[in-house]
Write a structure and sequence with these properties.
Rossmann fold; 2 domains; CbiX-like; lyase activity; metal ion binding; lyase; metal-binding
Amino acid sequence: MKAVLYVCHGSRVRKGREEAYHFIEQTKPFVDVPIQETCFLELAEPTIAQGVASCVEQGADEIIVFPFLLLAAGHAKKDIPHELKKVKGQFPAVTFYYAQPIGVHEALIDILIERMEETGESIEPDDSVLIVGRGSSDTQTLADFVSIRNLFRLKTNLTDVNISYLAAASPRFTDEVKRLSEEAASKLWVLPYLLFTGMLSHSMKKEIKALPMAESVVLTKCLGYHPAIRQIIHQRIQEAEQLEEGFLSFRSISI
């Protein structure tokens, strides 16, 4: 019997964990797999090991593992496969398939624009935009974020579109939001390229509130639940189901 195990990042913030869990619950009815479980990589339970065990207890002998992450950073390439390798040894009869994360997708750019529009603020041609990512030392992840910025520019025709990171990469959010709030010709839009509320989004609010020009900064909601993301998740799971071999892999990385 087949199962899907959704691996979320995890958060110390209860609301962030709940948002991730509820997102998956709303996604499950659209995925035609009999067993579906949710777990967390860190900071919350159930753990990956507990999630796999739950799938097996329900009769799963094939498990599609979906890393519920925006981009293919270290968590998707190393941390989750590392945990799965440890768990796989406990269940040698189970076949595992490792799906791709959400990745760069035009639909997520549309969600960013939707988050801007729902603030009720007008979007002017001379507005500045700062797209904010979690951050990573992975070069491919940083290249993906540049692609996201370029897609956003193309879809909005806005020219002053910038990127920054909350950790592990530069330019840092604290530096860029200060610079742009002082230099922006009109208003500054801050767009969190994050799935859910968490410690990082809380820190962004505090940084913006402390700015001398805070009144000219518009902070949108995180990406959050959206049917378009649900559809991408479904697509990634279907892609993993079509793998010819039952191994866990991520591009050139295998466990």
